Amino acid sequence: MPHTPKTRSPRLPPLSTAEEEAQSQTNQGEDFPSILSEDPELHLESLGERFMQALDLIRNAQIEEAREALREILATEPRLPEPRIELARIFLQEGDLEQAEAQARISLELLEKGGRWNLDISMASMMGLAHGLLAEAIRQKSESDAIVMHDPQQIWELTRQAYHHFKRAADLDPDNEHARYYAFHLGLEISQPVH
Which end of the chain, N or C, is more open, meaning fewer C-beta atoms within 10 Å of its C-beta? Predict the structure, then answer.
């Protein structure tokens, strides 16, 4: 029997005024209660199982199906960082650096607001993972032809950002050798003057 991670109803960041307005407009005139009614986290009950299914799809190299499952989870609850982390990984592996960066940034923002869902992984590890994915997306972006052929200042700025996130990832998870390696080497790069 596969291990099911301990999950809880996430301590989600509160809905913004715009999100509350959009939610109330979506449910106007409908016969079912709003997800914001008596139990605002009722809609989360089935998401843990759906998330595990998405991870199984990833392990079985069914990436398109996994991506769709993760997007469905986020359509139900967009404030969960873990599905966004998995999407960031998928996009990074596929070379879609813009999407990888966007998903990693959003997951990091959600984690910083306390929106952790999976209790098997410490908050520091989750934050380290999000910082590491964001750093890797930025690092790869800084090495892309579109950047390298143009502005040395932009390369330096992207390298500085990647360093910051790799350093943070290594500080949060000292066992993350990839983050430690790049934090060290990018730290040397950004200490050099820009030409």
Answer: N
* Domains detected in the chain: 39-190 (1.25.40.10)
pLDDT at residue 19 in the model: 40
DSSP letter string, 166-184: HHHHHHH-TT-HHHHHHHH
Q: Which of 12-21, 109-118, 170-179 has the highest mean pLDDT?
A: 170-179
Mean pLDDT of the 13-17 span: 46
Q: For residue 7, list its beta bridge partners.
A: 118
Structure tokens at 36: 């914001």
Max CA distance (Å), the chain: 64
Helix (H), strand (E) at residue 68: helix 63-76
Neighbours of 20 (CB within 10 A): 13
Residues 6+ apart with CB under 8 A from 180: 166, 170, 174
Q: If you ran DSSP here, which 8-state letter would residue 160 be given?
A: H
Q: Are 117 and 82 in contact (CB under 8 A)?
A: yes
